[in-house]
TrEMBL record:
Keywords: Oxidoreductase. Pfam families: GFO_IDH_MocA, GFO_IDH_MocA_C. Gene3D superfamilies: Dihydrodipicolinate Reductase, domain 2, NAD(P)-binding Rossmann-like Domain. This is Gfo/Idh/MocA family oxidoreductase. PANTHER family: CONSERVED EXPRESSED OXIDOREDUCTASE (EUROFUNG), CONSERVED EXPRESSED OXIDOREDUCTASE (EUROFUNG)-RELATED. It comes from Mannheimia cairinae. Residues 133-346 form the Gfo/Idh/MocA-like oxidoreductase C-terminal domain.
Amino acid sequence: MQIVNIGLAGAGFSSRVFHLPFFKQDARFCVQKVYERTSNNAAQWLPSAETVRDFASLLTDEIDLIVITTPNQTHYDMVKDALLAGKHVLVEKPLVATVTEAKELATLAKEQGKVLYVYQNRRWDSHIATAKTILEQNLLGDVVDCEIRFDRYAKEKNAKVWKEAGDKGTGLVYDLGVHLIDQALYLFGKPQAVYADVRYQHEGALVDDNFDIHLYYANGFKMVLKASKYAREPSPTFVLHGKLGSYVKQNADNQEDLLKNGVVPVDDWNAETESEWGILHTEINGNVVRQPYPNTKASYQCLVENLYQTIANNAEPLVKLDEVICVLKIIEVVFESAESGQKITLS
């Protein structure tokens, strides 16, 4: 068994909740070093790992994989330095702020012969995995409308200063929209056109905190992607309508909450009860049915497993860089549309 030795950049919320729980229970990975500029968070979670105070100290011979969970503004330089040092890289979304930067890093990864993998974990949210199954089984007929929401309630601006500073690559579209757009591409591929309304609702906000993105496809199919920080009572997380029926899931995926509460991600750790399943209301063999529809088994561990196989066995990455670049292209068009008030055709 090949052991992948990790140098972890950043020891904040993302590391603690979304990355370390999977690496710590998987014997194929070993976190050797953690980069923290001033704090000592890692000592609590990874007492056997060495804490270093500069990023370059991660790029030593014994490290195979650099995992980057630092603020968005640091991603480009860190990914570039890691690839040039001959390391594989797993980086939190968004990869970078622009298509130009993403293409440059993708080319560099290819030239170096190294894996560059972006942490688009929410393809494995329960409603997305289940919708994929429903679409593959054609349980709704020709699809006509889909809406995915990522609603939260936050009366105040984010306490993380870097998220509110107004730098390019920050704000709700780059934070949550990058997930929703990736989910749309995963389910339905690249749209033909985009229209977006991007708003700044918090008093004194320098970054967007509400968006309504419309993606237009062939045959009249449209996706709506929405997120708000003022949704104390959220709308359904996922709605999919077809000419035969609908699939609606009220509740968001439970994995983030479980991980925040310290649940170890093994076995059926994220199985949801029937009361949390979505509702399938459709026509099957001429009979109309309306019933809870079991979740397709999925977990963020699927990404970690594929990452390992990509590094150790040259497997095909499930999150491809051309998809990552397409997401960033759509984000650029989202802001262009919001500024112009026009629907924009994708090239």
